[in-house]
Amino acid sequence: MTAEQLARAISELFAPWILNIGFFVVLGASTSSWAPALTAAVGTGLVPMLLIVLLMRMGRVGDHHITARDQRGLVYVGIFLCVLALVAALAWLDTPRLIWVGVFSALVFLVIFGLVTLRIKASVHVGLWVCLIVFLSLTVSSWWWLGLLFTPVTAWARIRIDHHTMAEVIVGIVTGAVVTVVCYLVFLA
Predict the structure, then answer these.
(1) What is the DSSP string of 89-119?
(2) Per-residue pLDDT tens for 71-106?
(3) Transmembrane region positions (predicted)?
């Protein structure tokens, strides 16, 4: 496997839609609330990816990683609407607070990354990784802090395949951390 192939594999395996699914599965295991957790996983992972595929088929976005900054606004709005629909679905379930906070944090993430994207194409891959790992570290187990050690690997992959610059990766890391701290202080502190 070449460095390029490895970077592409890492980029796919740690894509935001997959990270969201994994995140809510962990919260499901942590809370023993599988129906809301799996609903959130589908609503923040699978449904947004299906939306992106649909937008690709319509010619509105160029690729599934939305590498063109000017195409990201439509995707952020579409995913925001998906998460709002998820909120309505979760209202019908016995959803624990931790899953609610995860979902509301997703909305905050979308708004803040959407605003940042007006200036720079921040790396959502790296930003979401940092956001989810810090969230899980603060709420589930301090062992999750070790996950931050993988951040440079994801950053390298995004830079290696020319989807981001170092500046875009750094902005993604900082923005992801800020989103988590804000959400923690607003929803859990």
Answers:
(1) HHTTS---HHHHHHHHHHHHHHHHHHHHHTT
(2) 999 999 999 999 999 999 999 999 999 999 999 999
(3) 12-29, 35-54, 74-93, 99-119, 126-146, 166-187
pLDDT tens string 28-77: 999 999 999 999 999 999 999 999 999 999 999 999 999 999 999 999 99
Helices 124-139 and 151-160 meet at what angle, rounded to 10? 170
Global pTM value:
0.96
Distance between CA atoms of 53 and 18, rounded to whole angstroms? 15
| Burial class (CB within 10 angstroms; exposed 0-12, middle 13-18, buried 19+) of 19 | buried
Rounded to the nearest 10 degrees, the angle between the axes of helix 34-41 and helix 16-31 is 170
CA distance 111 to 132: 16
| Helix extents (H) in the chain | 3-13, 16-31, 34-41, 47-57, 72-90, 97-117, 124-139, 151-160, 166-183
- Our count of domains for the chain comes to 1
